[in-house]
UniProtKB/TrEMBL annotation:
Residue intervals of the Gfo/Idh/MocA-like oxidoreductase N-terminal domain: 5-118
Gene3D superfamilies assigned to the protein according to its UniProt record, in alphabetical order: Dihydrodipicolinate Reductase, domain 2, NAD(P)-binding Rossmann-like Domain
Identification of the protein by name: Predicted dehydrogenase
Taxonomic lineage of the native organism: Bacteria, Bacillati, Actinomycetota, Actinomycetes, Geodermatophilales
GO molecular-function term, one example from the UniProt record: nucleotide binding
InterPro entries per record: Gfo/Idh/MocA-like_OxRdtase_N (IPR000683), Gfo/Idh/MocA_Oxidoreductases (IPR051450), GFO_IDH_MocA-like_dom (IPR055170), NAD(P)-bd_dom_sf (IPR036291)
């Protein structure tokens, strides 16, 4: 079977990594690249750098990766859908929910694979966490809490911390819990003089009743990337910066103190840090996209899922603006 012919639009800070991995990916050949401002990182190799989507289409591509600024996602994605090209768009899916819906509907109507690049789903620590939760290691899940904090990345200019960073936490929470958001309440801050928010604290409730909490900012000199899932049997903590996963078991004890025997609490039990195979998450994401095109499995983040993540992010912004809790339940 011939290799899938791949095109890449956007050769910036993320696009350069996509170019590297598309060249490594079995069954895929990178045949065309596009960037409106040129190849600033020198990753095009012997490929001519086009300026428009048509340059990719002229190369008869089967699949495309879109790593342009968020405001361009809808325009580029709709051109590719109209041309019959399977496409993965970097997160967030689009600039707003209306544009995201148009993209999802366009790829669905064309019968194409449409994916969104929510890379954290492919982090080895989170992959193992979800497997262990599905196997019942934590029992009933009570809470999912995330922290994603660190210095401001110079690459970001068109969105705030919610759509850029918190969208990772929204997507991974839905995926780990296998449940959408029912409501969300958020508070934001603007501390660095930029147009968009640079700090958010958000609390949500999923449709299955799990409580969520997200602390995200671009203001901390300490880089933190953790996801903690607490359940009746203990807690799993994923450090996605190091791809480590640790289990903290609930201890058991007997009490002879009659006045507190009716109180059911927990104690510290054993803790285990698991040894994991640590493959690059972006490579795993590309493999999932390729395999979805080939009909082998369905591990991608679909455009509908990416749309829900964007809608929750927009609800968090609305909540911060209005000081209210936003209900996300669909009629």
């Amino acid at each position: 079977m011939a290799d899938l012919r791949a095109g890449l639009i956007g050769l910036g800070s993320m696009g350069r990594h996509h170019a590297r991995l598309l060249r490594q990916l079995d069954g895929v050949q990178l045949v065309a690249v596009v960037d409106a401002v040129g190849d600033s990182f020198g990753v095009a190799g012997d490929l001519a750098v086009g300026r428009q989507v048509q340059h990719l289409l002229d190369a008869a591509i089967d699949m495309a990766v879109v790593a342009v600024p968020t405001a361009e996602h809808e325009r580029v994605g709709l051109e590719l859908a109209a041309a019959g090209v399977h496409t993965m768009i970097e997160k967030p899916i689009a600039e707003n929910g209306t544009a995201g819906l148009r993209l999802a509907e366009a790829f669905e109507a064309a019968g194409l694979v449409g994916a969104v690049g929510h890379i954290e789903r492919f982090n080895p620590a989170l992959q193992e966490m979800r497997k262990r939760i599905e196997d019942g290691q934590l029992g009933e899940i009570y809470q999912i809490a995330t922290q994603r904090q660190g210095p401001f990345p110079g690459r970001i200019a068109d969105v705030g911390v919610i759509k850029d960073l918190a969208s990772h936490d929204i997507d991974l929470t839905v995926w780990v819990a296998q449940s959408d958001y029912r409501s969300i309440s958020a508070r934001t801050a603007h501390r660095s003089g930029r147009q968009h928010e640079d700090m958010v604290a958000a609390t949500g409730v999923l449709t299955n009743g799990i409580i969520t909490n997200h602390l995200v900012n671009w203001l901390s000199p300490l880089k933190v990337r953790t996801t903690t899932v607490t359940g009746e049997k203990g807690a799993l903590v994923a450090d996605t910066a190091s791809a480590d996963l640790t289990f903290y078991a609930n201890g058991t004890f007997l009490t002879e103190w009659e006045s507190i025997t009716s109180f059911r609490g927990v104690t510290e039990g054993d803790s285990i840090r698991y040894a994991l195979a640590k493959r690059e998450p972006l490579l795993l994401e590309h493999e999932a996209f390729r395999d979805a095109i080939l009909g082998l499995d369905q591990r991608i983040v679909t455009m509908r899922e990416g749309l829900h993540t964007l809608q929750v992010a927009e609800a968090a912004l609305e909540s911060a603006r209005t000081g209210t809790t936003v209900d996300l339940r669909r009629d």
